[in-house]
Amino acid sequence: MKEHRFAYTWTLKDTVFTKDKCKVFSCFSCGGGSTMGYKLAGFDVIGCNEIDPKMMAAYKANHSPKYAYLEPIQQFKLREDLPSELYNLGILDGSPPCSSFSMAGNREKDWGKEKIFREGQELQVLDTLFFDFIDLAKKLQPKVVVTENVKGLLMGAAKEYVRNIYKSFDEAGYYCQHWLLDASKMGVPQRRERVFFICLRKDLATPFLYQKDMFNVVPKLELNFNECYIPFKEIADYEGVSISSYAKKAWDYRKEGDLNIAQSKKRAGMKVSDMNTGYVYEDKVCQTLTSKGVCGSLLFSKPIRLSKTEFCKIGSFPLDYQFINDFGYLIGMSVPPVMVANIATEIYNQWLFTDTDTNSPN
């Protein structure tokens, strides 16, 4: 079997983080999914900004950040006391909360509304957080900005939002491009499609510029990943908890090809619900893990949920990660570390590596 660039089964205690590449700061850091990706790729992640105290507790327990700011990004971006290191970053990373654009949510009905959401229980307008992040990028002027969001951002009326993202990055001094990438093509045992906006500061871009089409000149960056898929059977331990008797009634009516338990409930004559509780098939790559945690997935072959170890492997989280709270929610909310490690490696090799570096590209 082809060896993957980064192992999806790993531990923090046995991994050597070289820190021989650029410095990174992570916003909307959650429990540290993207942070671990940069660390796996050899970057030095010096700090984070997060609004949720529970997520920050998990982040600190696992990463001991040099700088940690537990506050809304609207407040963080206005700080005048930020250390000089944050003005000399290789990469500014961030994953603004994305439920407003998820195809599973209310989408347009929620745009522009203040909402109390689980991450810190703060009243915020979720769809403006992206622009607060761009304001921070304009202030700090890192070499590269990386931010990701859900696939739904590229669909329907949300496309206008993407145009505004491009315009805002341009005004902040960056060339912006976006890619729709799938973690399952990067050695992650999960079909997780995410939109990545990757931006290079304009004063650094001259050596990389090329004509993308008749009207656009952009910095060239190749992000072509095609690692072999990892079906669930390769990571299964079948040690998850049994489903409830009510769920079992629906599960008994499942048929090959069902995507979720809602289809089985309809067949069983039950109230149709739980469309986001997907089936996991042994011979297929697991569907996207969600913030529903263990309640968001169940096996097709056995009436059980996913185990903690299975969750870690599917999310490419280290097996010895200190979750502090709900492991399923944290992993479901996080960018898979191995996904970020692959992307960060290409950014470094193609843009940030120079002949004056003492390190060779991977």
What does this structure look like?
By secondary structure, the protein is α/β, with parallel strands linked by helices. The protein folds into two domains: 23-229 and 334-352, 3-Layer(aba) Sandwich (Rossmann fold); 232-331, no CATH class. Helices cover 26% and strands 17% of the residues. It has ten helices and 13 strands. The strands form four sheets. The protein has a seven-stranded mixed β-sheet, with helices on both faces. The chain has a two-stranded antiparallel ribbon with strand order 5-6. Helix 4 (129-140) runs parallel beside helix 5.
Instruction: Look at the structure and give the mean pLDDT.
Output: 90
Give the CA-based shape. globular
According to DSSP, the number of beta strands is: 13
The strand order across the widest sheet is: 3-2-1-4-7-9-8
Number of domain units: 2
CATH domain fold name of the largest domain: Rossmann fold
Distance between the termini: 21 Å
The CATH homologous superfamily of the largest domain corresponds to: Vaccinia Virus protein VP39
CATH architecture of the largest domain: 3-Layer(aba) Sandwich
Query: Oligomeric state of the chains?
Result: single chain
Question: Whole-number radius of gyration?
Answer: 21 Å
Q: Tell me about the largest β-sheet.
A: 7 strands, mixed
The CATH class label of the largest domain is Alpha Beta
Strand content: 15-25%
Number of helices: 10
